[in-house]
Specification:
Helix content: 25-40%
Low-confidence stretches: none
Number of strands: 6
Structural class: alpha/beta
Largest sheet: 6 strands, parallel
Shape: globular
Strand order of the largest sheet: 2-3-1-4-5-6
Strand content: 15-25%
Distance between the termini: 12 Å
């Protein structure tokens, strides 16, 4: 299963990128949207979000999806878990996340169809990651 976390920018832009990945038709995509209810990085909130994300990751293969897109990666622990599982983190054009650092190999994406400057759109990002994963 391909696992992708979407970080950076704002909740609306992250959701637009995740929905573009689902609509791309490259593979069967399930989108997990757990929008942050508040700003801030309390340890309790980070643990809750990580627990829920892990539950979605475990449930996704049973739903028949080939890819899970986590629309709101707002804590570093979430990004670390995605990477531990062989997944990828993409960063949305806009204000970078204070919590989730951009690492070498991460893709820069935009909610703008067709991309914008050095940012690719959600469909192109999913296609690139699908091929990188060797799933195609």
């Amino acid at each position: 299963m391909l696992l992708i976390g979407v970080a950076g920018a704002n909740a609306l832009a992250r959701e637009r990128v995740a929905k573009a990945m689902k609509a791309a038709g490259v593979c069967g995509v399930s989108v997990y949207i757990d929008a942050p209810k508040q700003q801030g990085v309390s340890p309790r909130n980070a643990q809750r979000r990580l627990k829920h994300m892990n539950e979605m990751i475990a449930a996704t293969p049973a739903k028949g999806a080939e890819c899970l897109v986590v629309a709101h990666v707002v804590h570093e622990a979430q990004a670390l878990r995605i990477r531990e599982l062989g997944g990828y983190v993409v960063h949305v054009e806009g204000v970078p996340s204070d919590e989730v650092p951009i690492k070498r190999g991460d893709l820069l994406v935009t909610a703008t169809v067709g991309g914008n400057r050095h940012f690719i759109d959600g469909e192109a990002a999913l296609s690139q990651l699908w091929v990188s994963k060797g799933a195609a």
